[in-house]
Amino acid sequence: MSAKIVTISRQFGSGGRTIGRMAAEKLGVPCYDQELIDRIAEESGLVKAYVEENSENVAGGWLSFTAGRDFYGHSLQDDLFRAQTKVISDCAAAGPCVIIGRCADYILEDDERVLKVFIHASMEKRAERIVSQYGETADDPVHRLREKDKKRKAYYQLYTDRKWGDAANYHLTLDSGALGLETCAEIIAMLAK
Amino acid sequence: MSAKIVTISRQFGSGGRTIGRMAAEKLGVPCYDQELIDRIAEESGLVKAYVEENSENVAGGWLSFTAGRDFYGHSLQDDLFRAQTKVISDCAAAGPCVIIGRCADYILEDDERVLKVFIHASMEKRAERIVSQYGETADDPVHRLREKDKKRKAYYQLYTDRKWGDAANYHLTLDSGALGLETCAEIIAMLAK
Predict the structure, then answer these.
(1) Which residues in B lie closer than 8 A to residue A118 (C-beta atoms)?
(2) Is B39 on the interface with A (CB under 8 A)?
């Protein structure tokens, strides 16, 4: 296997984004994450704030998702997903890179150059991390994590028809809380070289 | 994390047993697999053939499992699981090692020295492997795999109350079909050193 395009799915607070950036640096390839937002906004004609809020989450859960559909069952979120598919395919076509989130593993699944990675950690480790990274809020960190998990999971399942976090969907899954971010980045870089 | 005891859960036909042996060799530690059968038989007083057939599978599925219970809801399979817990805990207490299957990840989960690994591969790769390893049978290899998956899954869920193959239960999961057995063994040995 000579994987050159790494897709990183991750639980909120697992440090997956940081691991992706570290692996990209080791590999000397671009890492697409926030950069994707601008490109998806441009491709879809949707405003950036909407893309940011909805490109990985089913906002408000299943009910609000179905409520937003028009007569043909079509929604803004579907437009967004189409634009996302186009942008992610373009990134992959441009060559080796690391792509964070946004169902890239599914969008690129027929591309043999892809190494599909999932990063997770225990609730305890993730709670520690979000408090140190994003600060305390009135909302309990465990509650924030549960809400975010729920939205990402619903989004992934809706567009991929797969179980979020099922090992079978990935070449590699890593517990960043137990193994450490640096070790995770090393393993990814080793496999993607 | 200084993991010294590696537990390997694996899909049938994924090469997980071979990977475990290769990793143990790299680490210079014992690998417990078939050896466990004798020890569990001795500990439980059950015959070896019964242990072999039932130490990872719910034989015949849920119905036969519930049918085998006595008035108190107790079954031979529970005796077996208790003996298995004792033997696996003894192996871990004796020092660094690799343990294949038998819910060792769950049995040893409070032990901080443990590195929990899950090995899987696509149906296609596993079908190729079981035919090359165990030969053709009248039964289609994909059907054989599905039956075995079902039994292992039921067994794991029954005794651990967890989802089989859920990334969250492991420190590391690897697609041996995509990555190759040698690479999988290397990563495990690297993390367990």
Answers:
(1) 167
(2) no
**Per-residue pLDDT tens digits for B83-135:** 999 999 999 999 999 999 989 999 998 899 999 999 999 999 999 999 998 88
Judge contact between B59 and B65, C-beta under 8 A.
Answer: yes
Q: How far is A95 from chain B (nearest CA, A)?
A: 20
With contact defined as beta carbons under 8 Å apart, do B100 and B32 qualify?
yes
| Nearby residues of A4 by Cβ (< 8 Å), 6 or more positions away | A29, A95, A96, A113, A192
Cβ separation B1–A179 shorter than 8 A: yes
Tell me the pTM.
0.89
Report pLDDT for A158: 86
Q: What gap in Å lies between CA B81 and CA B133, rounded to an integer?
A: 28
**Amino acid code (one letter) for B52:** E
| Residues of B with Cβ-Cβ distance to A175 under 8 angstroms | 170-172
List of chain A residues whose C-beta atoms are within 8 Å of the C-beta of residue B174: 171-172
Structure tokens at A3: 């994987």
B163-189 pLDDT, tens digit each: 889 999 999 999 999 999 999 999 999
The rounded distance, in Å, linking the Cα atoms of B108 and B88 is: 8
